[in-house]
Amino acid sequence: MTAVAVIPAAHLPERTPERTKDKLLEAVKECDCATAQTLADKLNLSVPAIRRHLQDLQDAGHLDVRSEKPGGRGRPQHVYVLTEAGEATFPKAYASLCVDVLRHVDSLFGEGAVMRVLDARQLDLYETLAPLLSRHGDLGSKLEALAEALCQHGYAARAYQEGGQWYLSQRNCPAPAVAKAFPELCQTELNLYRELLGVPISREARLSCGAAECRYKVG
């Protein structure tokens, strides 16, 4: 009799909840009509199990549900769709697209064109942030308000004092590839902070140059 190899349970591939949720998001993205039944069939899971994962993803803000008639007829069904946060879990090529666009701006419109484009973007940011900072009187309060606003834009920023000196640090760069290819982006950022705070500001460290943070000495 031929011996049959038995694979220990510890070596069987695991279907972790996280991996199942990843595959579920992929299935929702691919499906024209992502009902619980359709998704359960696609992932070879029971409908109750799928519903639990769907609820978790709704609670996390990755999915939304709406009532639709498949093909425009019949009884309405609950159909799951990706939210903006759910879409953001999939790889994007925004940085490379932005770099390519700026390179074309540079080649088509000549020296200084990229800086003008970035200056226009920073002007939009100034018009958004200036009213927020105007509610605060002293430099420290303004700087803390600026850090809070930057966090909402993905900069992981904080304002702090050392020996009476104010600093602004940013532990994350939302567009590191762009900043590395076009240092002008960092320059317009520095200009923006000077205009918003109305005091001298110097950059002491920069993420795009290999530092652990972008650090600004303020005042």
Automatic annotation (TrEMBL):
<protein>
    <submittedName>
        <fullName>Transcriptional regulator</fullName>
    </submittedName>
</protein>
<feature type="domain" description="Helix-turn-helix type 11">
    <location>
        <begin position="34"/>
        <end position="69"/>
    </location>
</feature>
<dbReference type="Pfam" id="PF08279">
    <property type="entry name" value="HTH_11"/>
</dbReference>
<dbReference type="InterPro" id="IPR036388">
    <property type="entry name" value="WH-like_DNA-bd_sf"/>
</dbReference>
<dbReference type="InterPro" id="IPR036390">
    <property type="entry name" value="WH_DNA-bd_sf"/>
</dbReference>
<dbReference type="InterPro" id="IPR013196">
    <property type="entry name" value="HTH_11"/>
</dbReference>
